[in-house]
Amino acid sequence: MSILPQQFTQFILPIYPEAVVITVALMVLILDFFLDRDSKSLLGWFSLAGIVIAAFATFRLMGAGVSGTFFSGTFNLDPFSIFFKFVFFLACGLGILVSINYLKSQNIHRGEYYALMLFATSGMMLMASAADLITLYLGLELMAMSIYILAGFMRHDNRSNEAAIKYLLLGAFSSGIMLYGMSLLYGLTGTTNLAGILAFLRAADLNNPVIFLAMIMLVVSFGFKVAAVPFHMWVPDVYEGAPTPVTAFMSAGPKVAGFAVLLRVFLYSLEPLHAHSTAILSGLALLTMAVGNVMALSQTNIKRMLAYSSIAHAGYALVGLAAASAGAGGPIGSADGAASVMLYVLIYALMNMGAFGVVIMLRKAGERGEEITDFAGLGKTNKTAAFLMLIFMFSLTGIPPTAGFIGKFYIFKSAVQSGLLWLAVAGVIFSSISAYFYLRVIMVMYMKEPKESIELTTSPSLALALAVSVTAVIYIGILPSNLLDYARASIVGVM
User: pTM here?
Assistant: First the structure.
């Protein structure tokens, strides 16, 4: 039976944004054959245009009220997934902008780079909309395979090769654990559908050790994706070795996608197990904050410092997730905790992309420009770049009136509301510790003399990415209420 044009339109409508992103990725691969080396930048701008079109399509779907579960209950189109898709568009768009001039300067300007970034984004979008474990796994592997290749994109750089191999091996191991956990859930429930799993658990004996084992395996696999301790071993080496724009992208997009899945799985499908999940997530949050912040204190390479910083920020987001799980018995506490996580991952993506953008500015031909000492005297030689880095460091620390302060405030507030006062206090303590290594960068910029003349690598695309990031960080820091209200409204339909 053939699909009529109208039927085809109805079929493709829920996945229209995903279809746009994948189509643009395929077109980039084709156009790459017809462009010479000097014209490869056009592929970056073309990819960015595709992201803008996909964002517009998503906005139109939201405005038209298209929502529900599609494709035999495997795909969700709801305010929750739409929120995260906009975050993915933002991360991908900024990732493309910071990459254009970098790839050209490093002589690795090839079209497949942008295609891989788009494929990774489409995988993230699929993860956010997953209503079935199989759909979730397909989206995760599409994202992961693309990131593996991007991490080793500088194939003549030994550190890039090492980063890709480590990420691939450990990522494959975590995927295996995830599949085993999913198979246990399927064996218990007879379904891979998230709604079906929820219905089974509500009527099941929750003391069954197999259920608990399946949940632990999912925690391990998702913990790897969000870089939670003790599943963080890959982060410092991969972040340092991968091309800096790739590091910026993977620190934002995949981490946000991981938390999107954690929110949907633990607050929806595994909601009857909230007492167990709260204890596990609280412990993970405490351990992740502690290790991330303490290990960052001794780092001299700014990419490794930001890698451990990424681990610490995963811990802060886990505080909000634990608060949401603890508040599952009361809808207000649960919704506030989940909304704080959604707001926090958006803020983290913006300020981290901005910080890596400034790092890219210091990258010069034949030099890495990644040591903290390379920032010495930047406040005297380039006041604009120093000011931008100051804003991003302030935001990562959580100093008002930046967005980072707002994000941490709502995270810790939700923990207190859910009865996790001790976890909120621990978060504040570790956040105070983080001030040392963030403010150390500022001290080096403004209180040290430059070792030599600092010539920054700038471009219109990089300038645009930094302008968007710093504007958003300041704006959200001053006027966060509308965004938080939207996040809270988006999560209600999931829980």
Answer: 0.93
